[in-house]
Amino acid sequence: MIQTIFTVTENIPLTKDVMKMTLTGDCSHITVPGQFVNLKIEGRYLRRPISVCDRQGNTLTLIYKIVGGGTEDMSRMAPGTEIDILTGLGNGYDLSKSGDRPLLVGGGVGVPPLYLLAKDLIAQGKQVTVILGFNTASEVFWEEEFKAIGCAVRVTTVDGTKGIKGFVTDALDGIDATYFFTCGPEPMLKALYNKTEISGQFSFEERMGCGFGACMGCSCKTKYGNKRICKDGPVLEKEEIIW
Amino acid sequence: MVNLKVNLCGIELDNPVIPASGTFGYGYEFAELYDINVLGTFSFKGTTLNPRFGNPTPRIAECPEGMINAVGLQNPGVEKVISEELPRLATCFHKPVMANVSGFSLEEYAETCARLDACDQVGWLEVNVSCPNVHGGGMSFGTDPKAAAEVTAAVKKVTKKPIIIKLSPNVTDIVSIAKACEAAGADGISLINTLLGMRIDLKTKKPVIANTMGGFSGPAIFPVAVRMVYQVSHAVKIPVVGMGGVSTANDVIEMMLAGATAVEVGAANLVEPYACKNIIDSLPAAMERYGIQSLSEIIGGVKLWEKM
Lengths: 243, 308
Known about the structure:
The complex is a heterodimer. By secondary structure, chain A is mainly beta.
């Protein structure tokens, strides 16, 4: 982990409440997909943890949903704004277990961290399938970006306005995957856990105090003992999860 | 050259800055970021006799200039702290550490303190009396002068090291509780623990924290802390460790003028991981700005307005 200053270069809406922010700064401590950064927002006491969607050289891409005051403030940040950021937080995904045909499953703002993961898996020569779940067609984002890097993409919407009607678990038929990686709302993670026979890794979300393992604000119980989502997670293996 | 040294219950500190319990783990997360030997000392994670997972999540809520936490004293229990955490700490911290202890009965406080008192690395025991007394109807030990004195006496009986009683601000008269602890043999008082607070999520209509209520800390509580440190330090003869919203070198000086011998820094560590190091680095310049040669000389030095 390091504390450093990033400068916003772009901050644009992808849907009505999902934004994409690109920043420049020292990305060297973001070593694996699935890690997150913790942003200091002027006038907000606690930092805001946001998953890393992409990092390339000195460019960091974050995709975030406006859910409250802090992310609302973020959405108003103009290019040139400097942000104090703790980077390289969390364990991230362990790519070594993916096998040849990994499946990536994302729901809503659980989609972004899977993008860097997909890029790294494809760079390793893996055949990557992605399922992206949303509520409705107007909320869909990042489908083309996954296709552009060579993923086979299935989109689901709960109301059927785009792709397969239903939840991500309704799109599993016919996919012969060796392993899976997922991030999304907890009910989605649990449904996937129950419906899959293969093993996988789950990225969890929790309200955090510090984001680097000091305050024990985001603890959870696992079969391997108590863990902190921010430091020992956010990625847990299927075998250790206690729902 | 300005002098930052202070003496806390017979042990000299290089400076008065002490990360507060619960915001600094057992030290080594921060040791990855900076040499934690620059600290006066630090108060480690509140330790109980038995391991505790703590409260359900969410445990954290944002507030203007502060936060609420309801971690619920998650810790691995005193045995593991002694067999695992302290040896690991010894690799990165070479000063006496402050052992923070919680309990739910007099016996539990005494046993946990006795075991930590026997550890060479421990310099002081800081006893948190804000926990509910399971044998006393669940009321916090720290809200009743008699119960707080009983904890103090029970712990003093089985220990040799300085005992600092950490007081809750959620009381009618904190001075009477501090005096009762002093009379029962306390070597020092630290205050304030967090203020009881609550936030409600307007969308879900639920409390933000699963435990409904939690401890409010951060810069927002600093004036309350300064007031209570002033009141207590002027009513007892034993040293007072001041805490509550301290975030800057100026805050440290203000706390010491109010009467604190040393100063703990809590929530600031969580939002600014280098907070304590930054405070220590900027103390000499702040002292020079206010004409202070030696920090130990300003303890309790607030000059009151003359009565008209």
